[in-house]
């Protein structure tokens, strides 16, 4: 069996800034910080890493207790925040998921910096939640490479649970994402890296990270699907 792991924001969909807005609202309401300052990057990182860094630069102790406090507030707000923002499923995504679903040797999951509740809330709002049975999420890890390892382990567990005793092994993994960090974490688990320029990173920035496949968006995926078909006969 083969696993395909998708990033969410900038790869599958855009939420109109819902994630950042929810961060701001949570810091304002739960930590009394009106406008979290500091040039803290969001793209390609885990929610945990972002929140803890924002705490550091805003004078809040980056403790496990404060992370849990932040996570509770964020998860309590994200559904309404996503509903109030103007986003969309990105071009080609639904067709690609439909075509991958036809491949009996491929299991589809997530590799995202979102906490799991946030990931599911975003996907549910745009009608994609049922497409992904497993994944690695940003609840526990600061480092995206650790999320990648967790996603690959989740793929193996998913295959074992659905093997009917046959015990299929995970013979390969593909990671699809829109940032340099997605390519880097794909390399960390020995995966085939697909970079798609539908997020904030430019084609040039993504090309410099040397992915196995670079796409402008997910409407032209013949090469991606050819790789999946090749994995069936490898």
Provide an overview of this structure.
The mean pLDDT is 93. This protein has 234 residues and is an alpha/beta fold. The N and C termini lie close together (11 Å). The strands form 2 sheets. Strands 5-4-1-6-7-8 form a 6-stranded parallel sheet, sandwiched between helices. The chain is 47% helix and 13% strand. It is built from 9 helices and 8 strands. Helix 5 links the parallel strand 4 and strand 5.
Helix content: 40-55%
The succession of helices and strands, N to C, reads: EEHHHEHEHEHEHEHEH
Stretches where pLDDT falls below 50 for ≥5 residues?
none
Strand arrangement, major sheet: 5-4-1-6-7-8
Distance, first to last CA? 11 Å
Number of H- or I-type helical stretches: 9
Oligomer designation: single chain
The secondary structure category is alpha/beta
Biggest sheet details:
6 strands, parallel
Strand content: 5-15%
Shape: globular
Strand element count? 8
The overall pLDDT, averaged over residues, is: 93
Radius of gyration: 18 Å
Blueprint of the fold:
Blueprint: E1 2-6, E2 13-14, H1 18-31, H2 47-57, H3 64-83, E3 88-89, H4 93-101, E4 106-111, H5 116-125, E5 135-136, H6 144-161, E6 172-177, H7 180-188, E7 192-196, H8 203-208, E8 213-215, H9 222-233
Helix pairs in contact: 1-3, 3-5, 6-7
């Amino acid at each position: 069996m083969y696993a395909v792991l998708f990033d969410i924001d900038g790869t599958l969909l855009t939420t109109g800034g819902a994630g950042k807005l929810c961060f701001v609202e949570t810091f304002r309401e739960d930590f009394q910080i009106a406008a979290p300052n500091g040039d803290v990057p969001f793209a390609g990182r885990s929610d945990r890493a972002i929140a803890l860094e924002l705490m550091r630069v805003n004078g809040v102790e980056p403790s496990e207790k404060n992370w849990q406090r932040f996570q509770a507030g964020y998860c309590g707000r994200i559904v309404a925040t996503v509903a109030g923002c103007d986003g969309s499923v990105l071009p080609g995504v639904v067709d690609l998921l439909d075509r991958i679903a036809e491949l009996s040797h491929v299991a589809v999951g997530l590799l995202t910096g979102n906490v799991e509740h946030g990931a599911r809330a975003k996907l549910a709002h745009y009608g994609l939640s049922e497409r992904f049975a497993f994944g690695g999420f940003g609840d526990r890890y600061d480092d995206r490479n650790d999320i990648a390892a967790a996603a690959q382990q989740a793929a193996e567990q998913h295959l074992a649970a659905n093997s009917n005793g046959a015990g299929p092994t995970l013979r390969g993994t593909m990671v699809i994402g829109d940032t340099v960090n997605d390519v880097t974490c794909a390399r960390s688990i020995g995966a085939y890296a697909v970079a798609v320029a539908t997020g904030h990173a430019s084609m040039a920035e993504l090309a410099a990270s040397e992915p196995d496949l670079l796409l402008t968006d997910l409407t032209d995926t013949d090469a991606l699907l050819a790789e999946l078909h090749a994995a069936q006969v490898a």
